[in-house]
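Input record, target 12 of the design panel.
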C-alpha cells in the first residue's frame, strides 16, 4: 500500500541528535506517527515518538549533518497506520469524504491560516474562534474575511452631517452586554461625501481611552481603520467617536463600526 507524505514547515536537527524540532507544522498523530520516516536533506531517520505539545519528534540517532530550519519530508509509512485491510479501506473512504469540495477544513485557534497541505482546490476552510474563512485556489488558501451568523454581528452606525467640529464627540454608545471589536476592524467602514484636504484621524475610545483610529488620507473620502488588539466592551462600557482638528473640506461622513457578540 502506498504511503502518504507531509512536508509543511521546516525542521531542525543536530548531527547525531535524538530530536527534530518543527516550525510551522501541525504536529499530531495524523501528520506524524511513531515509526514514520523523516527525511531532511540527504539523510533520514525513524520516528520513535511524537511530542505534540512541543512540536518535536523523537528519532533514532540522526545519521546526517546538522540541519537548521530546512525543508523535510515525512513519509507516513508507519505500520501503526494500517492495522488491516478493512481499516485501510475505511480510511480511504473517509479521506475521500473529507476532500470533497463541500467539506470545510477547520482551522485551529492557534493558527493564522489553514495548513497549506490540507484541502483541495475549490474547498473552504473555517476558523470557529474568529469566524475567518478561506478558499483554496491553485493550491493556495485565499482569505475571504469573516463569516459569522447574522445574530453575532453588532453594527454601530454614526452619521455626521456637515463638517465635524474640532474635538467634538460625534457619537456615543453604551454596551448592553459583551461586545468585541476585533483587531483591525476589517469589516468596519467610513465614507464621506467630500474628501479630506489633509490627513484627518478620528479617535475611537473605550471609557475615554483610545483603542482604535479612523483615518481619512489627504484627498480621500474613504477611511482606513487601525485597531491593534481585540477590545472587549462589557455591559456599561462607553464607546465614543471623537473628531480631530477640523479639516477644510471633509464633510457629511457616515461611520459603521462592526463588533461581535
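The sequence produced for target 12 reads:
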Amino acid at each position: 500500500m502506498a504511503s502518504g507524505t507531509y512536508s509543511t514547515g521546516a525542521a531542525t536537527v543536530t548531527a547525531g541528535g535524538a530530536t527534530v524540532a518543527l516550525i510551522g507544522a501541525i504536529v499530531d498523530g495524523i501528520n506524524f506517527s511513531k515509526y514514520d520516516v523523516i527525511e531532511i536533506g540527504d539523510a533520514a531517520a525513524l520516528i520513535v515518538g511524537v511530542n505534540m505539545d512541543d512540536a518535536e519528534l523523537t528519532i533514532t540517532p540522526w545519521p546526517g549533518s546538522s540541519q537548521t530550519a530546512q525543508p523535510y519530508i515525512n513519509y507516513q509509512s508507519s505500520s501503526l497506520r494500517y492495522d488491516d485491510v478493512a481499516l485501510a479501506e475505511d480510511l480511504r473512504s473517509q479521506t475521500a469524504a473529507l476532500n470533497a469540495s463541500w467539506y470545510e477544513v477547520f482551522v485551529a485557534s492557534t493558527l493564522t491560516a489553514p495548513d497549506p497541505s490540507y484541502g483541495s482546490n475549490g474547498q473552504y476552510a473555517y476558523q470557529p474562534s474568529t469566524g475567518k474563512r478561506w478558499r483554496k485556489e491553485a493550491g493556495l488558501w485565499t482569505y475571504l474575511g469573516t463569516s459569522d451568523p447574522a445574530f453575532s454581528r453588532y453594527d454601530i452606525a454614526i452619521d455626521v452631517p456637515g463638517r465635524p467640529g474640532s474635538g467634538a464627540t460625534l457619537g456615543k454608545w453604551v454596551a448592553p452586554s459583551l461586545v468585541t471589536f476585533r483587531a483591525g476592524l476589517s469589516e468596519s467602514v467610513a465614507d464621506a461625501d467630500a474628501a479630506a484636504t489633509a490627513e484627518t484621524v478620528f479617535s475611537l475610545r473605550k471609557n475615554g481611552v483610545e483603542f482604535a483610529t479612523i483615518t481619512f488620507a489627504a484627498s480621500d473620502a474613504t477611511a482606513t481603520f487601525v485597531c491593534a488588539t481585540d477590545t472587549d466592551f462589557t455591559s456599561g462600557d462607553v464607546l465614543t467617536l471623537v473628531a480631530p482638528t477640523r479639516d477644510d473640506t471633509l464633510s457629511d461622513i457616515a461611520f459603521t463600526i462592526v463588533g461581535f457578540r
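Residues 3 and 77 are 5 Å apart (CA to CA).
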